[in-house]
Amino acid sequence: MKATLLEGVTVKEICEGFEYSELEGKGLYGWSGKLTIQPEYQRNYLYSENDGEKEKAVIESVLKGYPIGLLYFNKVGDRYEVLDGQQRITSLGRYLKNLFSVKDLTGNSHYFKSIDETDKQKILDTKLTIYICEGTETEIKEWFKTINIVGIPLNKQEISNSIYSGSFVTLAKAEFSNSQNNRLNVWRAYVKGNVKRQEILRTALEWVAKNSYDVAVDEYMSFHRYDTNIDELKNYFEQVITWINETFTKTYDEMCGLEWGRLYEEYHEENFDKEKLAAELEKLYYDGYVTNKNGIFEYVLKFLATGDKDTKLLHVRFFGPNEKRRAYDEQTKEAKNLDRSNCPDCVLEKRRNAKKIWKFSEMEADHVTAWSKGGATDLKNCQMLCKYHNRLKGNF
b/e per residue, 120-154, with b = 16+ CB within 10 A? Predict the structure, then answer.
């Protein structure tokens, strides 16, 4: 790949013709229309987050005469694409369009139109250090992955978008990386992530790639790279969301971020009794012994579909050290008085350990009545068993 230094280009020239769109995934343009500021492989604009702290810093740096770093443009025919510097150029363009204000040294906020003429000219006349890069698509994309992106590293999906840029990525970003999408509030109840950082798009791709093809996201994106529609991706994602809404009558915070794609594939053909499912969920959600609320949804689906009470999903609270020591002391005292083992199951077996007194470290706490059968995790329901019998029985 060849990189050539372009000298003398100013902020005014680069921002000429700049128009900012709130629709994420849509290209921004500058340099009188010959520069694509946000090509499809680029991330969304992020500097406006956190009250615009980073975009304001760009303007403050220019006003103070500080360099804002190297910019890299990819030459495509007689046009250019921003390879690195999209966030900084967009910040400059947005400020010149009076889309945010910057505080001066006295703490007063000023839009570009309201600063004095000297500062205006200083911004417009600031010269930028730009390298024009030329090379194959593979070379350009590899360079894009490895250059410094001003302190915000690319995540997996942003890298995948750069590698497999094409009509599919453009359409997918417009659907799943658009903060104006009116379906976003519904999705956010079940899908975790920053829409601008492509994290909801990543989830949608993981669901359809794994469940429809059992392949990695990158394989799926490579296969569909030049598709002119995203119907399969969009429809599968909505099928999963619809199934969740129809299966669960109530939404809990802990539902966000679960493996809904996998759960859909495993259970969407089951005809659940919704009232029974809701009642089971309610009971578990307010059960003080269940420490993993995220696991109750899969637990209930599995239990109602198969009858299996997979308590590992719930992380049911274990007996504490004080409860175990007290149960051990009481059992051991009684066992010695009766000349028998302090492990009740060893006594019942009537074999060589029937009279053995186990050390505290050789025993484990067990629910007399299993938690899954209504037994509480309290001292009255606690017994100590030797490790062999406890693990033979199972904890729940």
Answer: eebbbebebebbbbeeeeeebbebbeeeebbeeeb
Q: Which amino acid is at 110?
A: H
Q: What is the pLDDT of residue 346?
A: 95
Nearest to 3 by CA among 127, 88, 128, 130: 130
Q: What is the pLDDT of residue 149?
A: 47
**Position with higher pLDDT, 394 vs 360:** 360
> What integer pLDDT is reported at residue 379 of this predicted model?
79
392's tokens: 């033979």
pLDDT for 208 beyond 80: yes
| CA–CA gap between residue 21 and residue 90 (Å, rounded) | 11
Distance from C-alpha of 82 to C-alpha of 206, rounded to nearest angstrom: 28
Supply the DSSP string of 106-157, one letter for each residue. Answer: TS-EE-GGGS-HHHHHHHHHPBP-EEEEE--HHHHHHHHHHS--TT----HH
Tell whether the torsion through CA atoms of 317, 320, 323 and 327 is positive or negative: positive
Residue with tokens 């794609």: 261
Give residue 22's pLDDT band: very low, low, confident or very high (50, 70, 90). low
Determine the length of the chain.
396
| Dist CA 287 CA 15 (whole Å) | 59
Residue 55 C-alpha from the chain's centroid: 24
Q: Are 244 and 190 in contact (CB under 8 A)?
A: yes
3-state SS, residue 356: coil
Rounded to an integer, what distance in angstroms lies between the CA atom of residue 393 and that of residue 396? Answer: 8
pTM above 0.70, yes or no: no
**C-beta separation of 353 from 363 below 8 A:** no
Pair 368, 323: CB distance under 8 Å: no
CA dihedral angle for residue 65, residue 69, residue 75, residue 80, rounded to 10 degrees: -50
For residue range 178-190, list pLDDT tens digits in order: 888 889 999 999 9
Task: Band the pLDDT of 166: cuts 50, 70, 90.
Answer: confident
* Per-residue pLDDT, 25: 45
Which three-class secondary structure state does DSSP give residue 290? strand
Cα(173)–Cα(273) distance, integer angstroms: 37
CA 277 to chain CA mean position, Å: 27
